[in-house]
Amino acid sequence: MGQMLIRWLDWPQAWAFAGVLVIAILGWIGFPVGFGAYGPGLGLACLVLALWLMGMAVWTMARAKTTVNPRGTPTALVTEGVFAISRNPIYLGDVFLLLAASFWWDAPLGLLLAAGFVWLANERFITGEEERLGEIFGDEAAHWFNRTRRWL
After folding, report:
1. For labelling alongside 92, which of 11, 50, 130, 136 has CA 20 to 30 A away?
2. How far apart are CA 129 and CA 13, in angstroms?
3. Using 50, 70 and 90 to split pLDDT, how confident is the model at 75?
4. Spatial distance between the Cα atoms of 139 and 136, rounded to a whole number of angstroms
5. Integer distance in angstroms from the first to the last C-alpha of the chain?
6. From CA 47, how far away is CA 86, in angstroms rounded?
7. Exposure pattern of 29-48 as b/e (b: 16+ CB <10 Å)?
C-alpha cells in the first residue's frame, strides 16, 4: 500500500503542485524585494502559457492515441504541434505554472523552485521517457531528439 501511494504521488504534476504550495507559503511570509506592480501581470501571462502548453500537449497526445503517463509505454511518437517546439511541453507548462505562482504571490525564491523542478523533471522523469522512446522508435526518436530541444 505504501509503495503504491508513493508511486502515485511521484508524478511531475504532484511535484509541481507541491511547489505551488511552497511558493504560496513563501508569498505569505513576504520578502523585502519582489516583482512589484509587474508581478500579477507576469503571473497571469505565465499561467495562460502554462495551461495552453499542457492542454495542447494532452490534446495532441490524445489525438495520436498515446499515453500521457510519464512511466507508460508510448504507442506513437508525437512530434507535431507543441512537440515541435519542445520535447516536454507538459513539463515546460509545469515550470510556467511555478513561475506564475512566484510572480502572483510576489515570491522571488519561487524562481529557485522552478529551476529545481527543471532538474527534478530531467532526473526523475525525462531521462527514462527518452530512453523508452529511443528503444521503441529508434532512429525516428533520435532524429526528433536532434532537431527539437528538451525544454526550449
Report:
1. 136
2. 16
3. very high
4. 9
5. 38
6. 18
7. eeeeebbeeebeeebeebbe
Distances (CA, A) of 54 to 9, 57, 72, 83, 129: 19, 5, 18, 11, 17
Q: Is the pTM of this model over 0.90?
A: yes
Buried b / exposed e across 55-81, counting CB within 10 Å, b at 16+? Answer: ebbeebbeebebeeebeeebeebbbee
For 1-57, how does the pLDDT look when each residue is reduced to its tens digit (9 = 90+)?
667 767 767 899 999 999 999 999 999 999 888 999 999 999 999 999 999 999 999
- Torsion sign, CA atoms 55, 61, 64, 66: negative
Name the residue with cell 512530434: 79
| Torsion sign across C-alpha atoms 102, 107, 108, 114 | negative
Phi, psi values for residue 17, rounded to 5°: -60, -40
Q: What angle do CA 88, 94, 97 make, to 5 degrees?
A: 145
Q: Output b/e per residue, 120-143; b: 16+ Cβ within 10 A.
A: bbeeebbeebbebbeeebeeebee
